[in-house]
Structure formats: C-alpha cells, structure tokens
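Quick one, tokens below:
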C-alpha cells in the first residue's frame, strides 16, 4: 500500500517542485520513474521521446529518467544515438519521489514484463498524475474509469498515442479517491489482517 499522507498532491507546492527539477512553466515534463533495468524498456521510452519531439514541435517537451541501475550506460548511449541530449535529463536516484511527481506532467511506465503492481504508477495515481502505463503484470488492477492510459506492451506506437492523448487533452485527472479506497497503506493493512483472520 501507498503512504497516503506523503503521496498527497495538496501538500506540495508545484512551482517549487518544478524549480528544483529546473523545469520551466512553459515546459511539459514527461517522466519515467524506475530502476534502470532491461525489462523497464527505457529504450522504448526514448524512441517514444524522439517521435514526440517531432510530432509536437510547438510544445517544449522535457523527458526525465529517474532512477539508477545496470542499464545506465546503455541508456546514455541511446540518448546520444537518437540526438536527444537536449531533451532528456538523467536524474539518477530520486530521494523525494512525491516532489518529482508533483513537478512532472505525465508519468510513463514502459515495462514489458516482470511487473507486479508497479509502485511508481500507484504513487503517480495518488498524486493525480496523467499516467501512461503498459499492461504488464498486474498494472490493470489499478485501472478504473479511464483513470490512466493502459496500453499494450512493447509498442512504441502505443506509448506515443498514450502520451499524445494527454498532450492533446489537458483535463485534470482525479484518480486519488479510487486509490485511497483500494490501495492506501491503511486499507492494505486491513485487507491483510482480514486474510489472516479468515485463515485462522
């Protein structure tokens, strides 16, 4: 479960969070928050970024890769190969995740396997973020009344279409209440206790 008092968009000053991330008000922050492992498919995230930069030349898009891991050097190489150095920022390990989420506009999950219920997506939905996530593992358990874009795995087109939807539709997302009712730390503790009581 997610610690709901911490992942609460109302307690963070968005402008301050964006300043810490060096993100200007006229820029759109698109981020991925994940350990830099192969199955997270940062390569697809970067291919998506390349297409979106060309598709939306009028928008100032900035892509953030938050996290660290064994794929770091490979990701750096891809950024150079795709000529994305001026658009992509490697943030490394992010200490204050809620501040990072408050600052960006769109959160992406591009995994193709090995996901349970991804923490970053849960956290993003608690923060009322626009989310585009692949249907990997149990990500679909978080899907409720179109609270995010749930897309097919291993598809650059699906990623581009999912993010494009939010770039073309700026309406606010209200996913927090559903998450509070089903995935907060207090609710999950009660569910676990109930399971134990049933077994006993």
């Amino acid at each position: 479960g997610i610690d709901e008092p911490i992942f609460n968009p109302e307690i963070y000053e968005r402008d301050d969070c964006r300043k810490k991330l060096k993100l200007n008000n006229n820029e759109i922050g698109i981020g991925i928050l994940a350990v830099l492992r192969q199955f997270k498919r940062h390569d697809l995230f970067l291919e998506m970024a390349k297409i979106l930069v060309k598709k939306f030349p009028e928008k100032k898009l900035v892509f953030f890769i938050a996290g660290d891991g064994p794929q770091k050097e490979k990701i750096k190489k891809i950024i150079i190969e795709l000529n994305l150095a001026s658009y992509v920022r490697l943030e490394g390990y992010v200490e204050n995740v809620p501040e990072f989420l408050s600052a960006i506009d769109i959160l992406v999950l591009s995994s193709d396997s090995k996901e349970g219920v991804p923490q970053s997506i849960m956290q993003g939905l608690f923060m009322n973020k626009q989310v585009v996530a692949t249907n990997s593992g149990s990500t679909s358990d978080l899907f409720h009344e179109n609270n995010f874009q749930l897309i097919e795995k291993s598809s650059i087109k699906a990623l581009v279409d999912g993010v494009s939807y939010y770039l073309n539709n700026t309406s606010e997302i209200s996913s927090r209440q559903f998450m509070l009712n089903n995935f907060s730390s207090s609710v999950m503790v009660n569910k676990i206790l109930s399971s134990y009581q049933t077994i006993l």
